[in-house]
Amino acid sequence: MSSYLKRYWPYYFMLALPIAYFLIFRYGPIVGNVLAFRRYVPGGSMYGEEWVGLRYFRMFWHDPSFWAAFQNSLVLSVLNLAITFTLPIIFALLLNEILSKKIKTVIQTISYFPNFVAVVVVVGILKEILSPTTGVFNQLLGQLGIDPIFFVNEPAWFRAIYIGSDIWQFMGWNAIIYTAALASVDQQLYEAAEMDGAGRWRQTFSVTIPQILPTISVVLIISLGSMLTLGFEKVLLLYTPSNSSTSDIIDTFVFRMGLQNNNYSYATAVGLFGGLIGLMLVSAGNYISRKISGFSLY
Amino acid sequence: MLYRRTAGFRWFMTANALMMLGISASILIPFLHLLAVSLSDSGPVVGGRVGLWPQGFNLDAYVRVFQHPSIASGFRNSIFQTSLGTAIGLFMLTICAYPLSKRLLKGRKYLILFIMFTMFFSGGLIPTYMLVKSLGLIDTIWAIVLPFSITPYYLLLMMTYFQGIPEEIEESAMLDGLNPFQILVRIVLPLSKPILAAITLFLLVYYWNNWFNSMIYLNSTDKHPAMMIVRNIIAGSDLAGNVGQIGDTDGGVSTASLKAAAILATTLPIMLVFPFTQKYFAKGVMLGSVKG
Known about the structure:
The complex is a heterodimer of chains A (298) and B (292).
Chain A: H1 3-32, E1 38-39, E2 50-51, H2 55-61, H3 64-97, H4 101-112, H5 119-129, H6 136-143, H7 155-183, H8 187-195, H9 200-225, H10 232-238, H11 244-247, H12 250-260, H13 264-293
Helix pairs in contact in A: 2-13, 3-7, 4-7, 5-10, 7-9, 9-13, 12-13
Chain B: H1 7-39, H2 42-46, H3 60-67, H4 69-100, H5 108-120, H6 125-134, H7 142-145, H8 152-163, H9 167-175, H10 180-191, H11 193-209, H12 212-217, H13 226-234, E1 249-250, E2 253-254, H14 255-291
Helix pairs in contact in B: 1-14, 3-14, 4-8, 4-11, 4-13, 8-14, 9-10, 11-14, 13-14
């Protein structure tokens, strides 16, 4: 046995189980995507029984309900990204202006608590406060003489509810990374700026923001790449047949077609299509970032 | 600090403080409201007259929630799923991250690539489901705790942390005759408490809050975790089979109170643990940001 192996075999031994895990549970399903090109027979192989080419891709390509879901995914993703990417930066900057360190810590701690609240609970709270009979919002509307609105059933309100609750749940948590970046800004830069006569606003735009710009761009690339990864579970919990014209996204479409209607191959084809678009977004984001800032994920 | 004396600055500081107060309040108020609803008499709840303070006071909703057979078993199942899932996850992450943190390990680069690829492209919902099904794991706890035992992101955090431990410590332990397994258990893990704490907490929260995998993989309702029961209660399809409209009452307890009590009971473990552990959570995310 070579001296390398003599020393290093225990590490390979440790890796055996994790590698088996990745082969089975991560690459198994990746290979399992061939189901999109094969006909599935109940009780048969998870990889399908016979090749059918692009049959299932053609099927969803000509399915208007797929395109509706595709469009909903896109609209919700873009709106959500624009809002939930910007707000944590603003929140971190404003929190940074609070002078008392103690109060700052308390606010920060409260702000990231919702990140750990279960999505089931978030939707439970939403349904309770938005309820047309007992909900707080409709009580307020009632006092203004406005008829109750069944918010969680209205297609027009779905996106606002989704994004609003995302802000509530994740703004504080997503701000942590900026708060950390702000804490590491060299205080001498502010002193120098002040000597030069820079006011508070000037300092924010000429010192603070340039200093945290690298962090902002890294977060932006990652968010762009995972843009289509919407909170599937929340959408599923908020989904009702009456709000489906805005709440049906690619993921819920796949869930419904695959696990509720048992059209496994069809749903796999749709899921693969969505996954490939996601992969393209990640690669594009990574490429752009490498060109602009020299930073890349891989 | 000339600007600190201007009226504009004082105005900004006041407005900012008020806004921060508003944000904190908007996070706490929903929970206070639920607490008030869960403790109130049914009359004011059905009439929508409960704000942040209970109208009347009784614990009937909690008594009923905990007497409910599927909630009691739900809590047991949640504890079981959470502890097994966290234990397996920690074990797998450790034995995967430690070898990969050795820079001189041959093939390390390819192994990391092999693992990280799954971060950007995953099999998707249906192929994963088909795999779990063909492995015969449907309706067993293994369907919940095995497929997600190594999260590439947590693996990255752990690997980065292990790499930060000075080589010399391990070298001298090796000269003392310890093998890599002993070094991992006796030296590396005790030095890695912050990251282990952070990842343990992330895993605990993940498994405690998870309901979707139970919904698709566990057919027997007596295996469902508490979060799944709460999901059914909120969807209005469960709770002794007699839940109808929101305004209904059930043996003197309104369904709104029952829902509120169920929500709070399942969130309570996190609420209790959070204040004492939040610094580890934040640390976990910060450790990740070092790497980018």
